[in-house]
From TrEMBL:
The keyword Metal-binding applies. CDD domains: NTP-PPase_RS21-C6_like (cd11537). Its EC number is 3.6.1.12. Transmembrane segments: none annotated. This is dCTP pyrophosphatase 1. Hydrolyzes deoxynucleoside triphosphates (dNTPs) to the corresponding nucleoside monophosphates. Has a strong preference for dCTP and its analogs including 5-iodo-dCTP and 5-methyl-dCTP for which it may even have a higher efficiency. May protect DNA or RNA against the incorporation of these genotoxic nucleotide analogs through their catabolism. Pfam families: MazG-like (PF12643). Keywords: Cytoplasm, Hydrolase, Magnesium, Metal-binding. GO terms for cellular component: cytosol. Its cofactor is Mg(2+). One of its GO terms (biological process) is DNA protection. Signal peptide: none annotated. The keyword Cell cycle does not apply.
Length: 117
């Protein structure tokens, strides 16, 4: 089922994104181009596009209270492009991105213990 705009606020798993992206690429014959290196370069390109949105704006308030809905929609698109290429990169490298990220959070907690003083 393809839907371009949000239909509900249900949780979306990384595995669902991964499956939908694999179908998308397969249907278009693009999987052959989705090598780790190509996906990494595409990811970096999208990070650049995301950065452009903030470029020259000065500091931006959390929640983006002064942004127009068009600006927020543009931001949603670029943030999504970064995530979607990252998910595909993890996939073609044979990684479980969700598990890897959870493990990293645990490692971070050990590296930076609570400072109870
Ligand atoms: N070979 C490709 C090409 C595109 N996409 C998907 C992942 C991204 O979500 C989006 C990127 O599409 P574009 O290259 O058209 O980039 P933009 O959406 O940023 O468009 P533009 O660069 O015109 O702003 O499409 C993909 O998975 N594999």
């Amino acid at each position: 089922m393809e839907c371009s705009r949000r239909s509900s606020s249900r949780d979306v798993s990384l595995k669902e994104l991964s499956r939908r992206l694999a179908e998308f690429a397969e249907d278009r014959g693009w999987a052959q181009y989705h090598s780790p290196r190509n996906l990494l370069l595409a990811l970096v390109g999208e990070v650049g596009e995301l950065s452009e949105i903030f470029q020259w704006k000065g500091e931006v308030e959390k929640g983006l209270p002064n942004w127009s809905s068009e600006e927020k929609e543009h931001l949603e698109e670029e943030v999504s492009d970064v995530l979607l290429y990252l998910v595909q990169l993890a996939d073609v490298c044979g990684l479980d991105l969700g598990q890897a990220a959870l493990s990293k959070i645990l490692k971070n907690a050990k590296k930076y213990p609570l400072n109870n003083n």
